[in-house]
Amino acid sequence: MTSPFMLNTAVPATVPHDRTALLAMLEARSVAIVGASDRPGSFGARMVAEVGRSASRPVVYPVNPRYHEVGGLACFPSLADLPGPADLVLLGVPDAALDEQLSRTASAGCRSAVIFGNVADPALRQRLTVTARSAGLELCGAGCMGFANVSYGLRAMGYLEPDPLPAGPVALVSHSGSLFSALLRCRRAFGFTVAVSSGQELVTTAPSYLSYALEQPETRVIALALEAIRDPDALRVQLALAAQRDLPVVLLTVGQSLSGRVMVAAHSGALAGSDAAWEALTRAYGLHRVGDVAELADTLELFSLITRSGTRRGRGAGIATVHDSGFERAHLADHAERAGVRFAQIGDQTRARLAGLLDPGLEPVNPLDVWGTGRDTRQLFGGALAALAADEAVDAVVLAVDLVPELDGDDSYRQAVLDAALLTTKPLVVISNLSSAIDQDAAARLRCHGIPVLEGTRSGLLALRHLLDPPAEPLPRLPGHPARRRRAIAVSGNTVDTPPARLDLP
């Protein structure tokens, strides 16, 4: 059976890609910007501004025959006029100029390039691929937003993004430039080691970026937003390495529907992977496959904060939830059943402890509605959360409320969660039912203390399932010493695409 993870072209590589070219791209010490401009708001001006914000302070070479100076920097007529080869070239030029400019990039001895343009013409894609491979160039794109190596301090993007960029444990590879940008700007409790908008992946594919990310000690979560896989063998290797390091890999795919597959082909020229193949990959490597962007964001926040705090992950026995609404308790229970999230069977000692806290008429059960007279809110909610967390059957505790701005200034919910957090090492999470009503200041303060605030009933419960449920099948392990094996793979030339091949899962 031929793998559904297909690449658009199969071009033999005349010069093998080595590790140094990938490092030259992602840790560039010199960057040439073709199409640099002083015109405010232009793409060329944005490229110059973004690279100029790089904390690593690379040498910047604006390239444009129309200018003698751009942004206070000497501007060169062409790449041939640079004082030396640039590690990285940003090609902010129309498609009609890409053949010439990529050839000049190769002739100048530069090591890598980013192509932002869509390159809709398949013949042009083929020519660019041949040029880059023949010269041993790593190539981000085409049809991409560039990348940000946050840990290293390099910004290689054509659109203005937050400064500073959110730093954290997530390594992101996204075929979608829009999603890439949205995640950089979403103000959630996760940040990035490296974030790549890889686009059409004419040369450098997702596994190459993963190979780099997995070598960074700060990387503790992997996020993949993929249309198709152009190098299935290399991807299997990197996913096995992630499993070996016990790093969660969160996967969002598109193209499950017929119309979605047609749109993938129109967008990038790739054949979308079949849903069955994605599911096989998910099972074989213990991936956390999410269904939409909301679930992706909640899952990334949960993994980022839980892994950072060192809070232990559960055994899959079940969660306990605390509510201030009988209706919303039932609403969450409905969604939990559909999502396959179990409620823990709490013990008699826990029930007795809860009964001592609750107003008359409220039952000490899980899920728990604690709202009666509204008295002593902080003590009531904090005590209930702590009692449930102390139960051996409970894997994680959730305060499931509408975390709305309190017009009287009451801060009891936040304080109750922080009180309970001091008494447990189990995951303690807030799920807010309506994302648009969340008090962002309260959420930010909770997140600063390592408490995830998940922004939806359904997406929050699914994120908890990802955190707590063990993988369906044993995770694969590579033979030999992990570090030695990673180094061997890193120099094996896995950025070279291969013809469509079988996806032989272990």
| Shape, principal axes of CA atoms | elongated
The strand order across the widest sheet is 9-8-11-10-12-13-14
Amino- and carboxy-terminal Cα gap = 15 Å
H/I helix tally = 17
CATH topology of the largest domain: Rossmann fold
What does the model show?
It contains 17 helices and 19 strands. It has 506 residues and is of the alpha/beta class. The chain folds into two domains: 272 residues, Rossmann fold (3-Layer(aba) Sandwich); 157 residues, Succinyl-CoA synthetase domains (Rossmann fold, 3-Layer(aba) Sandwich). The strands form four sheets. A seven-stranded mixed beta sheet has the order 9-8-11-10-12-13-14, with helices on both faces. It has a five-stranded parallel beta sheet with strand order 2-1-5-6-7, sandwiched between helices. Strand 18, helix 15 and strand 19 form a beta-alpha-beta unit. Helix 11 packs across helix 16 and helix 13 runs parallel beside helix 14. The longest helix has 17 residues. The radius of gyration is 25 Å and the shape is elongated. The relative contact order is 0.12. The N terminus and C terminus are likely disordered.
